[in-house]
Design a protein that fits this description.
The complex is a heterodimer. Chain A is α/β, with parallel strands linked by helices. Chain A has twelve helices and twelve strands. In chain A, the strands form two sheets. Chain A has a seven-stranded mixed beta sheet, sandwiched between helices. Chain A has a five-stranded mixed beta sheet with strand order 7-9-8-11-12, with helices on both faces. The radius of gyration of chain A is 19 Å and the shape is globular. At the A-B interface, helix 3 and helix 5 of A face helix 5 and helix 6 of B.
Amino acid sequence: MDTMRDRFAPVLTRLLDEDPRVAVVLAEIGADAFARAQARHPDRVINVGIREQLLVGAGAGLALTGMRPVVHTFASFLVERPFEQVKLDLGHQDVGAVLVSAAASFDWPAGGYTHMAPGDVALLDTLDGWTVQVPGHPDEAETLLRHAVAAGDDKVYVRLSTQSNAEGLAVDGERFLRVREGRSGVVIAVGPMLDTVLTATEGLDATVLYATTVRPFDSTALRRATEVAGTDVVLVEPYLAGTSTAVVNDALSGVPHRVLGLGVGRRELRRYGNVDEHVAAHGLDARTLRERIRGFLA
Amino acid sequence: MTATTHDTVAHSRSHAELTGLMGLMTGDEKHGPAATSTLDVLWVLYDRVLRVGPDRMTDPERDRFLLSKGHGPMAYYAVLAAKGFLPVDWLPGFGSFDSPLGHHPDRVLVPGAEIGSGSLGHGLPIAVGTALGLRAQGLDGPTVWVLIGDAELDEGSNHEAIAFAGPAGLERLHTVVVDNSSARHARPGGIAARFEAAGWSTATVDGRDQQALYTAFTAPHPGRPHAVVARVEPKSG
C-alpha cells in the first residue's frame, strides 16, 4: 500500500493547478516529489534548502501577501526546531498556513530520536487556534489535506505517518466517527491507532470513537457517547501519551469521569529497529492495549 | 540645486517635529543615540523612498516595510504619526494597557505596521516570503524593505534568509542594517561582507546623512537583493 506521504505531492500538485493562492514551501525534504509541480509553477513551489526557520518565516511572508502556504518537512523540523516561528510568524502575525509533517512519532526508528516527534501535537496545544488533523489512512490524508488547504486562512497542522489502518473511513475534517457501540466505557482511537484499538477491544462492551480531527476536539460526540457508555474514557493516541487528557477533562467537566491516556511514552528508548518494535515498546500493540483498557474499564 | 535646498529645509523641519513626537512617548525633550539610531533611516524611507501611505495599507501594489528590530520603536511610531498612519494623540499612552503602541510593535494593533516584532531575527525571513509572494502573484512593482540591527544580525535565522535571498536573486528585497556597534562579537566590515558573500549588492553609509542614505537606498542592483549598512554612533553602555 502507498503511504500518506506518497499522496501529499500528487494532491498538492493538483491544488497548485486549481488554486493560484496555493504555494508549497519545502526545506529539501520531500522536494523530489514536487519536481513536476515546480517546473509548472516555479514561483509557487519553493525549496529554501535546509533552513527551517526560513521555511516557516517565508511561509508567513507568503501568507502576508495573501497566499495560502503549505509548509512541509519532518515533524521534528517543522514544529519543534522552528517552534518560535510557528508561534510568532504565524500566530502573532495573525496569518494562516498549512503545516504538513512526515515521520510522525517513530516512522523511521532506525533514524533514531533526532527524527522522532511524539511531542508535536502537545506543543501545538500551547498555542491558540490550531486545527490538528491526524489521518489514519492515505485516503483520509487526501481528504484532510484538501480540507486543510481550503480552510480559508486557518492554521492547520496535518500529521502524516507511515502507520496506517487497512481501510480509510469517510472523515469530514471536523467530527469523530462512532465505529462501535457499547455500554461500558468509551475508547477514542486517534488516526492510525484505529485498527489496533478495534482488535484490542474485540468482545469488550465499549464504544469506540474514531478521531482524525483532534483540534478542535469533538466534545459533542464524546458527551453523546458517554450518555450510553458511561464516563470512563480511554484515549489511544499515536503521539505523546495524555496529549488529549486535558481536553477530555474539559469536555466532561460537568460530570464525574475517569480518563486513561495511552500513547507514546516520554522516556527516550535509545533503540533503533522497526515500527512494530517501537509500537510494542510503548505498549501500543493490540495485546498490551487490551490488557490496559480492560484493566481500566473493569 | 533648488530641489536639494528644498529637501534639506523640509527634512530639518520634520526632524525637529519627530523629536517632539518622541517626547510625547518618553517625556524627554532630548533623546540619546540609542533611542534615535533608526530615526534618519526611517525618515528617509518614509519620506522619500517607500510608496506607502495611510490610505494604501490594503493596496497590493504598496511597498512593504518590515521593522524587524522592534526594540526602541519610538522613532518608528513618531514617523508613522508624522506621516498620518496613526493619531499623534496615541503617543502619550505608549506602553500602557489601553494603548495600541507597545515597547515592541504589534501589526494587529498599529496602523501601518506590516509585522509585529520584538523577538529578534524574524523580519528578514518573513521579508523573503513577502518578496516570494509578490513575485508569485506577478506584482512586479512593490519593493520589500526590512530594518534590522547590527546585534540582531547575530541571530542565525537572518543568515538562513541572507544565504537564500542572494542566490534566489530576490531583486525586490532590501535590508537596512542600522549599525550602532552593539554586537558583542564583530569584526570591521563584517556585516557587509556577509551579505556580499551571499551575492547581495551592498552599500555602507553614514546613517545620519540623509542624502547619503537616499543615494544608497535608491542605487540600482539588477538581479540581486540590496543591503545598506547605516553606521551611527556606538550605543553607549
